[in-house]
Amino acid sequence: MWNIVIIFQTFDTKEKCISFAEEQGLILKAKICRTHKMPMTLLLKKSSSVGVFRCRKGGCRKRSALGRSSGTWFENVKIPLPQVFYLMYAYASHWSHAEVRKNSFIREPVLSSATICDRYNYCREAVVLYQVDHQVAVGKIGGPGKTVQIDESKFGKRKYNKGRRVEGHWVLGMVEDGSDDLRLEVCPGNVRSAEVLIPLIEKHVAKGSIICTDCWRAYDCLASHGYEHRRVNHSDPDNPFVAEDGTHTQRIESQWRVIKRFFIKDNYNNSEDFSNLIYEYTWRKNIANNHHDPFVRLLDAIKYTYKP
Ligand SMILES: [Zn+2]
């Protein structure tokens, strides 16, 4: 597992950062000139972070050099490479900005909030693109005879932001009994009607599943969409949590508390694209469930999204 000491030792110079990036396939080691079919020369100038490629043959000599960073994870990087890797580790570890500044082993230049935000946004973007495709690739949850609990919850409800009321975001959650593979979707248009919820359920839950929900009316048509539908009536004074046939939604409901606590650092009320935070959450949860190394998984997401 990566830790801050190993990060510090591995990425303490620009040269070590570049060779790591080459080994990981984040940047090209060599480039062939299209005209001459010959390897180009790699120049590591001070000004350019990961260097430029230049062909020395014939008419190519007059052409301008090709930046090695273009189209890669390192395009438009304006901070030293050790800090790029440090911020990747910080993002993977889900550190707050304060933790980033406190733990930084590089004193100069001091990382501004804007810089941290910027790099975190790049990381999140790569993670979201990776996670969107990955969720589809692993397939649906549930199936005939299997039980899936489904519930919706509003995030950011009744919060005020600079005098403006924030309406919050409806999120649909789905989890199969006996599995930790939690599926979350932000409701488009922020509505939780059947027209919105059923397609989201069909995206994630296999036909024939037994679906447990509360008595929200949007779920009434589940039976006509190939599911076996069971309800728990939260307003039943005798048994508000578990129906007579044993139906309950307590696993998915207990998830909401965990997720809302997780997002406190990210100030989700201000988030312009809340669904990205939800994808990030499922990515992180998946890593925790499988005891993976977050830094390695972030590298995977970056390699998936940025191909040099
Ligand atoms: Zn050439």
UniProtKB/TrEMBL annotation:
Annotated organism of origin: Bactrocera dorsalis
Taxonomic superkingdom: Eukaryota
Domain ISXO2-like transposase, chain residue ranges per copy: 140-286
NCBIfam families: transpos_IS1595 (NF033547)
Pfam family, one: DDE_Tnp_IS1595
Identification of the protein by name: Uncharacterized protein LOC125778146
